[in-house]
Design goal:
The protein has 250 residues and is of the alpha/beta class. Helices cover 35% and strands 21% of the residues. It is built from seven helices and twelve strands. The strands form two sheets. It has an eight-stranded mixed beta sheet, with helices on both faces. Strands 6-7-9-8 form a four-stranded antiparallel beta sheet, with helices on one face. Belongs to the trehalose phosphatase family.
């Protein structure tokens, strides 16, 4: 593993961040996360220093990230890239309002009724079955989501995560989202940095590694990332230091 650098040139670097488990601590429910003011400030300052080359790449929807961060027109890839807002403010969406997804939602809603503590998160182009508050339901959650994806394998794939199974559109992942950003201004021509904590981030790490960038795994677990930090607090602290150093050199 490489060590984290003490300085990154804002004019030469494109910054990409996962949200949950990277910028904020995981919470029992998606709505329960707390965003420290220091995180919002770091993102805002970094966005200014890089002339906009900062984006969030998350399994959450764009509206959810906007509600938590309150940074207007921040480039965001939501739902693993099923929706993506570029630096000009234009948003592209795929896989919304699909009748097959609505059928799967109805099936999983019945499972949630049978397993108290599980939570079904409806995302528009994806659905996530959380079992963080019902760990004994993991086997049932896995079996049900696998069965549904098998029925619609031409259009959907299963994405396991931390205490969650998510059904998302096929050919949508964080690696593709990152690559799309890197083909556009102000990200194009810069060295990418991407930080994430979960299995969903591995495709993003692969793209960053291929382009000679800095991939950062937050927390424990096998990874293709070239660098690791042990916690959200450590990563957020490093990010704040990077911003401070960039301000001193600007």
């Amino acid at each position: 593993m490489q060590s984290l650098p003490g300085f990154l040139s804002p004019s030469e670097t494109a910054f990409f961040f996962d949200f949950d488990g990277t910028l904020v601590e995981l919470a029992p429910t998606p709505d329960g996360v707390v965003v420290p003011a220091t995180v919002v400030d770091s993102l805002a300052q970094l966005r200014r220093l890089t002339q906009g080359a900062v984006a969030v790449v998350s399994g959450r929807g764009i509206d959810s990230i906007d509600a938590f961060l309150g940074l207007p027109d921040l480039p965001i890839a939501g739902l693993h890239g099923a929706e993506r807002r570029d630096a000009s403010g234009d948003t592209i969406r795929v896989g919304f309002n699909d009748e097959r997804l609505l059928r799967m939602e109805r099936v999983l809603a019945e499972l949630v009724k049978a397993h108290p503590g599980t939570l079904l998160e409806i995302k528009g182009a994806a659905i996530a079955l959380h079992y963080r508050n019902a760990p004994l339901a993991e086997t049932a959650a896995r079996a049900a989501t696998e069965r549904l994806v098998d029925q619609y394998a031409d259009a959907y794939v299963l994405q396991p995560g931390k205490m969650v199974y998510e059904i998302k559109p096929k050919n949508v992942d964080k690696g593709r989202a990152l690559a799309a950003f890197l083909d556009e201004p102000p990200f194009a021509g810069r060295t990418p940095v991407f930080a994430g904590d979960d299995l969903t981030d591995e495709k993003g790490f692969a793209v960053v590694n291929e382009r000679g960038g800095l991939s950062i795994k937050v927390g424990a677990g096998d990874t293709s990332a070239r660098t690791r930090v042990d916690s959200v607090a450590s990563f957020v602290g490093w990010l704040s230091d990077i911003v401070t150093q960039a301000q001193r050199n600007s």
